Amino acid sequence: MKKRLLFWLSGVILPAALIYAMPFFFPNRFFLDVLTQVGYTWILVAGLNLLVGFSGQISLGQVAFFGLGAYGSALLATRLGLPVPLAMIAGVVLATLFGAVVGLLALRVRGLYLAMVTIATGSLIEILANRWIDLTGGPMGINVPGLGGANRLGPVEYYWFVGLLGLLVTLGLYNLSRSRFGRTWLAVKSSEVAARGLGIDHLKWKVGAFVLNAALGGLAGALFAHQNARFTSDTFTYDVSVRALVAVIIGGTGTMTGPLVGAALVVGLPTFFRELYDWYLLLFGGILLATLLLLPDGIVGALGRLIKAITGRKAKATATTAQATEQAPLPTFLCTQGSTLTIEGLAVHFQGVKAVDGISLQIKAGEVHGLIGPNGSGKSTTINAITGIYRPTAGRIQLADQDVTGLSSDKLARLGVTRTFQNIQLFTDLTVLENLLAGAHRHLRSGLTGALLHLPGALKEEAAFTAEAMTILRFVGIDHLAHEQAKNLSYGQQRLVEIARALALRPNVLLLDEPAAGLNHVEVERMTALIRAIAQGGITLLVVEHHMEMVMSLCDQITVLNFGAKIAEGVPETVQNDPAVVEAYLGGAEMGALLQGEVMHHAAR
Amino acid sequence: MLRVKDLQVDYGKARALHGVSLEVNQGEIVALIGRNGAGKTTLLRSVTGLVQPAGGSVELEGKSITGWKANRIAALGVGHVPQGRQVFADQTVEENLLLGAYAIRGDKGRIRQNMEREYARFPRLFERRAQQAGTLSGGEQQMLAFSRALMSDPKLLVLDEPSMGLAPVIVIELLGAIKEINRAGTTILLVEQLATAALSIANRGYVLQNGLIALADTGQRLLADPELVRSYLG
Predict the structure, then answer these.
(1) Closest-CA residue in chain A for B201?
(2) Do the bridges between strand A368-372 and strand A557-562 make them parallel or antiparallel, or are there none, so unpaired?
(3) Digit-coded pLDDT (tens) for A423-444
(4) I want to staple A118 with a disulfide (CB 3.0 to 4.6 A). Which of A61, A151, A540, B203 is the partner?
(5) ipTM value greater than 0.90
């Protein structure tokens, strides 16, 4: 309750009052224009901050959306005589649609190449604005009606309007960042392969962020267009895009107030140091360089750390001795009948290397199936092919009676097939609890509006799944770590988080890739009990593992691979005594003795 | 060879090591065991310079290397096989091995000789020598990380869970290889989850718990009391 009050005070009332009061402090036209400019730049930067800080993409073509918003609104108002508010909305829609097109085109590329695509897009709009003079007026400019028709809003009112929109956008984005939207974007940014394995369609989410960014860019452009009675094409240069990105970085990527700080700097500096006009690019360069070197998380990020350092409690030592209690049964809401997984003649070839070459196996509903074999025998490749990370070269994969061959991993996850990874793939920027909520992605229904406005429905859904996630964390024995950042946990704890996250999807089929790796024998016993409890809840399990005690005590059936082919199959006793398996993999009696610590004098000789 | 005194390390906000002291003598194999999160990897990383300690000292052959950067420590002849392999994924197996020989660059003959020795140790690496390291299986990458560290004939070899992801047969070979390398003159500091296996090849062992040394004894004596060791692992 107190927290809520604080939020309303510091996040809504105080900033709104400041925005309202500014014109009384600076009652001249010049300052008002600058403030208005800061206002719409704030919106432009906030959109880019979402794209960069949350979805991990980059755009150096913000000027395209800004320009489309501006010209779209201006031309619809002048040529078609649309009322200005309607024209502004249309301008935003135009920029949004264009953003969707660019976003879809840009999906195929990432990093450096994505930046190039956006630069090209920006240039396109810049050239159109300057050269299509019949339409845009080019450098000669275009006359635009103001907001409010005949009683055109004065500069003070227009500034209030822009400032208020900036605040609303920021509050909306704040809500969004703390909803499943922000979480999902951060998850995709952190590990695409894991996100897909939980049913998150990463392409859709990336385009979504791009579209949202374009919409906000368009809004900023529309607000710019109607600020004065006239504007020219001179504004729409590459400089707009660069300044927006600089503002994001200086302000603090991924922070909530960073865009305002960044916008104030990139607008304010060149304006108030006008006599240094020729120098201001140099000045920017210097500030950017200093930020990158000294404040890698920007001004707001650095301030946040400073405040935490002063007020923050010195973190409690994470000496979290997990209690060796009895393993609880699988929570009932996770219990299932499982699904039978049938693999027929599976082959995966990489440029002539036959990593997997014609494997058939059936994992019956509710059984624990072990997959073992020498290093490089094709175990992980098999799992990757089953979960849709690799496309099989040949063969057929069937889930219950449905053919799922070649389905992508996010589609499979939505059918209830998920996995853990040999090299743990947690969403490191998220807390343990948030990792689990990302795991529940396929069950979450609340939409964008709910997330933007924090509507009761969305909050209720969030609360329900938080409770579910806490139950799962208790089941795996790490509920005390729920609010820790995933990256701060030890290796063994991270393994448990990964399993818990997979359970949050409520899977029918769960594939575990080396769950015992990096655990000592006491921890392995606990992990074995945990997996057994999961199996007893009915979830079909495929376990790749080298820890033979675990495999032999846990599995109903074991399949042994070597050189990409199946060399043995059966119950543990059969496999254990199979001469081919002993020869290729187990290493005979030596290995049994190894765990008792006897063999080494012998091996060492 | 290596003397760690009252070492303290902070990880982020939390203290991971609360003053750890240990010694590794010339020619020894020393095993470090303990449960997950006890601080084993942190200790190794501060010995090889990947983590800066908040207090205490690290000495190598009587010379303080506290707070030195990893590249300088490596140049003194300390090899590190990190947890999680960290092979150069875009380069071939052979290029990875050549990069491991950075400290003895220039000595072509010795590099060739060492590479043959490593290929003989893990024939699988020889079969895959022209393949990009990122395309190897997890266990094969583990072999590569091990061999890469040996390419420059380190005086002190620091191993962080070398058995992780290896098939049982290979684990036996690996433990044999560690013994063999040790006999050839390399001192070894080993973190390993197969505790009994590690203690059985070690001269001495330390048990780490919550960032402190809880137990220190010879490998044989620690092995003789499995219940005691066990109580620190769970």
Answers:
(1) A600
(2) parallel
(3) 899 999 899 999 999 999 989 8
(4) A61
(5) no
